[in-house]
Amino acid sequence: MNSPVYIQIHNEIKKAIEAGKWKVGERIPAERELSTQFSVSRMTLRQAISTLVDEGILERKVGSGTYVASQKVQEKVSGVTSFTELMEAQGKKPSSRTISYHTSEPSLSEIEKLQLNDGDLVLRMERIRFADSVPICYETATIPEKLVSDFSKSEVTKSLYKTLEEKAGLVIGRADQTVSAMLASERVSEYLDIKRGDAILRLHQLSYAQDGTPFEYVRTQYVGERFEFYLNR
Amino acid sequence: MNSPVYIQIHNEIKKAIEAGKWKVGERIPAERELSTQFSVSRMTLRQAISTLVDEGILERKVGSGTYVASQKVQEKVSGVTSFTELMEAQGKKPSSRTISYHTSEPSLSEIEKLQLNDGDLVLRMERIRFADSVPICYETATIPEKLVSDFSKSEVTKSLYKTLEEKAGLVIGRADQTVSAMLASERVSEYLDIKRGDAILRLHQLSYAQDGTPFEYVRTQYVGERFEFYLNR
DNA sequence: CTTGTTTTTTGGTCTATACCGATATATAAT
DNA sequence: ATTATATATCGGTATAGACCAAAAAACAAG
């Protein structure tokens, strides 16, 4: 039960937000102020904030402050591996919670996979998908920013594929997928309500447009106990 | 080039790995050592390592060190490929060790999957498959006994598909596959030279003949660290 | 009031140090 | 030789300070 301090602070701040201490879009106290309130160093406080930012509960703005992120609910229908279809086939109600949604610089692997040029930015989204309110997977999706710069957030989170097709004329082609097994990390295990070291089924998916341009890179971690892939060939 | 230092170090380490400075599975120098080599604090060095871990290029093990993540053997599921062909395509030497091979009464799930009649017997085989002498998976295959009663043991174990096609005129049709993640049991972990509780990628495959008759039920447990599926859609 | 400049606040990065628990290795005991 | 124990190594967490650049706020000039 001896969670690290930054996890404890993470939980306290999260509860405070859920209790309405700060409303959506509102600024929370500065890191230096919170660190004295919680009697920890700023770096430790930052670690707590970072996890909340990763979860999409908070958003940072340099020089301005840290804000309570706007809430979101969406369902993505991926024509390639449709979580929704899989869940409905089993009589489950699919839902999801977006944890983070922000533009940032791509990592090297993202540059490589998405064939980005120097200076290109990406939109990175993290979310948790549920079946009947039970967490099934933790998913990180990366899209080149230039592709979605004209779209609203809900257009991206709720039906990216439809939006891309209708507004950008992008026709979805093939997808490369790799499936592997791993053990749950501390962070992901808390998202998915499992134990650290539990079995995780990992899916990496790189989707291409019909012209061969990669446009979406998704990394998903499924709870081994709660999910299986069904493949036909 | 005004990138933060930890990004620069990230790039240097990544290039060094790609250049072969450390091989796959090898331990890279400790954080404290690298931090002095790069003349930065350990925290900064940790930030660089963290990004590489996030990208799946490195793996951390507390008390042990940081390792170059193993590049995994990939299976292409786009066609019905045998393990042998698969390994050869990747320049690995495939081999296998049969653990058991005998006829017996089917289990309930085997009766169901293979649509067996009362009194039907099955041939059950257990084996370990290797790539370059490294154990990759533990596999249990079940085949209706009547299908293979005319074949020799080597005909079944070495190239079942080929034998079935040539000698029984059975044309292979589709296959249903279920992929999931689990943890290694004590018994399987010894076969595969891993630890109990390590990640296992489990594949259940039910193969059908072109006329729709199921003829093979295979349950495979792949070592998560050494194997991944590659799906092309 | 509007516009341009300076100051302050804020998150982002970085240092140097410290202690903990998990792991590996060397050592001692049997 | 085998087994138990101590020691060293390693990543994980935490502290207290520091400087930077972006943004906001305060201020000055028109």
From TrEMBL, chains A, B:
Keyword Mitochondrion: no
PROSITE patterns noted in UniProt: HTH_GNTR
Domain HTH gntR-type: from-to ranges: 3-71
Keyword set includes Transmembrane helix: no
InterPro entries in the record: Bact_HTH_transcr_reg, Chorismate_lyase_/UTRA_dom_sf, Tscrpt_reg_HTH_GntR, UTRA, WH-like_DNA-bd_sf, WH_DNA-bd_sf
GO molecular function, one term: DNA-binding transcription factor activity
Gene3D superfamilies membership: Chorismate lyase-like, Winged helix-like DNA-binding domain superfamily/Winged helix DNA-binding domain
Record keywords: DNA-binding, Transcription, Transcription regulation
Pfam families reported in the protein's UniProt record: GntR (PF00392), UTRA (PF07702)
GO biological process: negative regulation of DNA-templated transcription
Protein known as: GntR family transcriptional regulator
